[in-house]
Design brief:
mainly beta; 4-stranded antiparallel sheet
Length: about 290
């Protein structure tokens, strides 16, 4: 099923508290966030952003955080779409490619940074697969949404991408260039030294050279859904690490996965290649995490 189509390179989607949606579009020249009604039938431009990726709604004041990738920054938008403030990392560890984010149990924002600049990977001729095999310094950041303090917690990822907390209380990160999913323990804070490999999900036998896990999301039973960019499906991973089944997408480049409203048992998938948001029926609802 198709929820919304006619989009220009959608990257991420966010279901808002009122049931409507925000979708980030990269665009060929200028990106934007569009707001779509709960039915998918009405839409309007919410904000013009150069090259937006991950989006998150602040549960306290309803403002919207946006990961801007071309001019590396984290932007906070007012509820009307106007820019409230912009963060650029810190002097010792600036942002390069802010990618995706999630809200932690401590109320902080956890953000992946892919570790290269957009212009390094995406040239005028298209994606450069040689960069995909090169050295990257992907990072994990923690941002205090009140004080705006930005801390780099971990680094050395090969294109850090999707990020989500699971029902087990652990933080999971997808590493696109290797196909790995890593996880960390979390007590009252993130235990950085606990990072371990959870599963590898990329099928390296396909013809596309720029492939790997992108956005990730958990259902209420602890199953992990992984958007497999360049491979045309959503991988479903059991808590044991077993890859149980996949959801085939109509385009080859799914970028994000977002669960619908509680009780809907629907998964929404942003698909970059064909410019749409697809819907799939799933056995259970999403894990609500700490965003509410």
């Amino acid at each position: 099923m198709i929820f919304v189509e006619g989009l220009e390179h959608p990257e991420s989607a966010l279901r808002l508290n009122d049931g409507s949606w925000l979708i980030s579009e990269i665009g060929s020249e200028k990106g934007r966030l569009i707001r779509v009604s709960a039915s998918g039938k009405e839409r309007h431009v919410f904000a013009q952003i150069d090259r937006p990726n991950g989006i998150l709604q602040d549960p306290h004041d309803g403002s919207i955080w946006v990961a801007e990738t071309r001019e590396p920054s984290l932007i906070r938008l007012n509820p009307d779409g106007s820019i409230a403030e912009t963060l650029s990392g810190n002097a010792a560890c600036p942002f390069l490619w802010p990618n995706d984010m999630t809200l932690g149990p401590d109320g902080a924002i956890y953000l992946t940074d892919s570790g290269i600049r957009v212009s390094d990977l995406i040239t005028a001729e298209g994606p450069d697969p040689e960069i995909w095999k090169g050295r990257m310094q992907g990072k994990l950041f923690r941002i205090d949404p009140v004080s705006k303090q930005v801390d780099c917690l971990d680094q050395g990822f090969c294109f850090a991408n999707g990020i989500a907390f699971g029902p087990d209380g652990k933080l999971y990160i997808s590493e696109s260039a290797t196909g790995h999913i890593y996880r960390y323990k979390f007590t009252d804070r993130l235990e950085v030294s606990s990072r371990e490999l959870f599963v590898s999900v990329t099928d390296t036998s396909g013809p596309c050279r720029v492939v790997g896990p992108d956005g990730i999301a958990f259902d209420s039973k602890g199953n992990l859904y992984v958007a497999m960019f360049g491979q045309g499906h959503i991988a479903t991973v059991y808590p044991s690490g077993e890859i149980h089944r996949t959801i085939v997408t109509r385009g080859s480049c799914p970028t994000d996965v977002i669960f619908g409203a509680p009780g809907s048992q629907k998964l929404y998938i942003t698909e970059y290649q064909r410019g749409r948001v697809e819907m799939a029926e799933v056995p259970t609802d999403g894990f609500t995490g700490y965003d509410d």
